[in-house]
Specification:
The protein is about 50% helix and about 10% strand. The chain has six helices and four strands. It is a multi-pass membrane protein.
Length: about 180
């Protein structure tokens, strides 16, 4: 029980020194790997962000993990994320394999119930998003899209058939679309 609040000064100094070095190493690797590493664009980007935090915490607090092992783990995660992003950008098939597509959940005044059920979203949640965008009438909105990262996009003008529209090639789950 006596080591709950304080173990020794060596433990605290190790945490401070290893923490500072690991943090600087992580910042350096993130700068090299580019902005995509911590963006919330796709599922695997989120997973990498959580894994980086967990790894950094383990390096900081576990005496069983050396600084070199921790930095190697951080470098591995960043490298794997970079490889996935690189392959995803260069291959549409690979991109579809590892991440979901945006889904149309509201279109031309209609809530698309099959899409809402598949994405596990309620009509009330969509209405909340619309209110947050200062939409006062559903007729103001052409569509609501649930993006790959789980966020919602409210599109006021556009067509699912027009290649110049932001709605073009958005996944449609239902045949209710008119």
């Amino acid at each position: 029980m006596e080591k709950i609040f304080f173990d020794n000064w060596d433990s605290i100094s190790r945490t401070l020194i290893i923490g500072a070095i690991a943090y600087l190493a992580l910042i350096f690797m993130l700068r090299i790997s580019g902005k995509r590493t911590l963006s919330q664009m796709k599922e695997f980007d989120f997973i990498v962000t959580v894994a980086l935090g967990s790894t950094l915490a383990t390096v900081l607090l576990s005496k069983d993990v050396t600084l070199a092992s921790g930095v190697a783990a951080l470098a591995l995660l960043i490298s794997l994320q970079y490889i996935l992003a690189y392959c995803s950008v260069r291959s549409q098939r690979f991109s579809k394999l590892i991440s979901s597509e945006p889904t149309l959940i509201f279109y031309k005044g209609d809530f698309l119930t099959k899409a809402l059920k598949k994405e596990r979203v309620t009509e009330a949640e969509v209405r909340s998003v619309l209110r947050s965008q200062q939409v006062v009438d559903l007729s103001e909105v052409q569509a609501v899209v649930m993006e790959s990262n789980g966020q919602f996009s409210v599109v006021k003008n556009g067509s699912i058939d027009d290649p110049t529209s932001p709605l073009f090639q958005v996944k449609r789950i239902t045949d209710q679309i008119r």
